[in-house]
Write a structure and sequence with these properties.
Blueprint: E1 5-6, E2 8-9, H1 21-33, H2 36-42, E3 43-44, E4 64-65, H3 71-84, H4 87-107, E5 118-122, E6 131-137, E7 140-147, E8 150-153, E9 157-159, H5 173-185, H6 188-194, E10 195-197, E11 220-221, H7 227-239
Parallel strand pairs: 2-11, 3-5
Antiparallel strand pairs: 1-10, 4-5, 5-6, 6-7, 7-8, 7-9
Helix pairs in contact: 1-3, 5-7
């Protein structure tokens, strides 16, 4: 098991814009499928403070959950997810969601429920006006924000898997394998720079704070990596 925490600083260019019309349309159809009370609970103002209240543990959440939906509503919710994610991304979050069934069996805890995943929309979905939407539950938090018809940000974003390995597979296997491949490619001197602690944190280092940053520019900079190491890091970033 990795006992050290390593940080690599990467300077990446802006995300390439992607067509959002299918996302806007899917979000509009999702909202239209909801009852009046569900819509009131799910559609919040674009500047709502709830947009900054994200988490990745099981807790009471705003918005409509999968368990609250009928078959038609679940179909429109799935269409919104598929419009916003790649096929591999959608498969990954579904694997993570189904791990709740495994945890329920392991723990005997009925609160482990694959239907306790919620949808929130901030502002009316529109091709040119700002709006955002969120999908969130245990070990999944995805937020997509749009501005002037383009995807402006896909953060905060969080994915984890517990258990990491089950009969259903390993949802984050590529992330783990590429992470260790990068770590193992570092020289002894590079590891000294990249390692900021000899003990792994008990949770995400920045948890769910609004400013998710490690202060002080710690870690090894991208420019200090070899070409092969840079390629390995970019592969890891691409998987995320």
């Amino acid at each position: 098991m990795l006992k050290a925490l390593l940080v690599l600083a990467v300077a990446m260019g802006p995300m390439a814009p992607r067509p959002v019309d299918p996302v806007v349309r899917a979000a509009q159809e999702f909202l239209a499928s909801l009852s009046d009370s569900q819509r009131t609970e799910t559609l919040l103002p674009v500047d709502s403070e709830s947009k900054f209240d994200f988490h990745y543990v099981p807790l009471a959440r705003k918005g409509v959950s999968l368990g609250d939906m009928n078959a038609r509503q679940r179909a429109t919710a799935e269409a919104l997810l598929r419009a916003s994610l790649s096929q591999s991304g959608y498969s990954k979050i579904e694997q993570i969601r189904q791990l709740e069934v495994v945890l329920r069996q392991i723990e005997g805890n009925p609160r482990r429920d694959p239907n306790r995943y919620h949808f929130l929309v901030f502002g009316e979905p529109h091709a040119s006006k700002p709006w955002a939407w969120r999908y969130e539950g245990h070990h999944i938090s995805l937020t997509f924000a749009f501005r002037e018809g383009k995807l402006a940000a896909s953060t905060p974003q969080f994915l984890a898997a517990s258990p990491a390995v089950s009969a259903n597979g390993e949802p984050l296997k590529k992330e783990r394998d590429l992470g260790f491949a990068l770590l193992n490619s570092l020289t002894v001197e590079q590891r000294k720079v990249a390692t900021i602690s000899d003990r792994a944190p008990v949770d995400i280092l920045t948890t769910n704070t609004r400013r998710a940053a490690i202060e002080g520019r710690k870690g090894i900079p991208f420019r200090s990596l070899s070409r092969a190491q840079k390629d390995a890091l970019l592969k890891l970033v691409a998987v995320h």
